[in-house]
User: Fold adenine phosphoribosyltransferase from Pycnonotus jocosus.
Amino acid sequence: MELCHDPASREKGWYLALMAPNVKGPNYAWLDPSRLYCHPQGLQDCLADLLQPFQGDAIDVVAGIDAMGFILGAAAAAKLQKGFLAIRKAGHLCVQTVAQPYTDYSGREKVMEVSTDVISPGLRILLVDQWVETGGTMRAAIELVERLGGVVAGVAAICMENSEGGKWIQERYKCSHCVPPHLQPRFDQHQ
Assistant:
């Protein structure tokens, strides 16, 4: 699909076809959303679908998760007219942080950090990432927010797989993703 072409029919999830498949192996995400982010209408429709369940909800800040979640999270923050908080991989913030170890989708042990002076008790945060595969990265972000007294107002991702970790998140938090139900099995199986 061309980056400037808008399809005649724009059903929920049409923009998922813009994502490019992984050609580099298991240490990379299954799909790359870069082309989706470059498509003006695709990005707008993705954001509209992603944020629709949170219309009218109390959200103080949108937090994006390092690194592709920064793009989608910042766009969501701008659309909601809220501030943006970056939740980073360890070693990238030059201020005092709180850290949370986790295992990512490829099985690698990592550490996530957030600044200690931006989350105050009761602050309602919408967490955004490109993908929830095993749930490890998102769960680390949730634990950081809650440890600092923040409230997870919701979790949003282009796709939330029905993995054990994905289900754990969906059972406990208000969630939104862009994959229509009839396509979910294909995304869960990485097809």
About this structure: Helices lie at 34-38, 40-51, 68-80, 136-147, 164-172, 184-188. The chain has a mean pLDDT of 93.
